Amino acid sequence: MTFPKTMRAMVTMGHGDLDQMVFHEDWPCPTPAPDEILIRVGACGLNNTDVNTRSGWYSKTVTDATTGGAFEDVGQDDPTWGGAPITFPRIQGADVCGEIVAVGENVDPARIGERVITDGWLRDADDPDDMNKTGYFGSERNGGFAEYTTTPSRNALAVQSDLSDAELATFSCSYSTAEGMLTRAGVGASDSVLVPGASGGVGGALVQLAKRRGARVIAMASEAKHKDVAALGADMILPRAPDALRTALGDEKITVVADVVGGPYWPALIDVLERGGRYTCSGAIAGPMVALDLRTFYLRDLTFTGSTVITPEVMPNLIRYIENGEIKPALAATYHLDQLREAQTAFIAKEHTGNIVVIP
What we know:
Oligomer: single chain
Structural class: alpha/beta
CATH architecture of the largest domain: Alpha-Beta Complex
Distance between the termini: 21 Å
Number of strands: 17
Order of helices and strands: EEEHEEEEEEHHEHEHEHEHEHEHEHE
């Protein structure tokens, strides 16, 4: 089978505003190296990491909330999720659903034709549990905002599902992030989990996956999105930032806060945790700089866990949940590849409930 030498791709040329994303009609089409596969992209999800990496928000020189725009000072040594430089130009996009159309050396040709979704975590094949040896698809190597992409064969997971490519492209980043957070916090059926930002991609995944574990879920979201959040299974839904959170919760006893929001409201979240409660975090879209009273932390016997690099079994588990119908996609909107800037604008403005997906 022959493939085109060039393809359509949205290419990020450097850190900065939306104009750093440039659409190309004739970008070189990749070919799979040994142990890699070539995917014809059916759809690719859009996530906070795409916005934050492009803008340079991960750098410690940036202390503002995620805005999606350019920052005045972006450190060049730590502007990515891993605290390291990034090489431009770069095709971003971690959440690919598509079809394997070619394989490199050492890969079974029988994989051609498989429908797959991507595991974004690029691990050392000889030491997959070492978090210091990980990269991320669409950051440390080109991703899926293009017609074709390559990835290591082990990072392309076969999936059997009646869901559309766009629906399947909602799962990889958002749901693996959420499952990683809940795993780190040890969430189980005896827990009551508070989820700020429950209308977002990760927030909605947290609601579903915590419910799957048998936990009680209290979601927080803007009132216009309460109906959509309720459809995900939340037991109780509160406004995005109640003036008196403890009062709003009534008799609810919060044992876990699963947070990707941070920002000025953060101390209120910590104050409602029960003694021995757990706080787990994988984002700070409302701002990374927060005020912590250490007395609350130690006198209440709280446990804080950061969660970024997931364990290798998370993605195979998600595939099983998808195939068994235990979780459902929260697809908010689709945009064409050449509309990626518009898609990011809508994503940043939180115009939608759930995930935004780009179609080549």
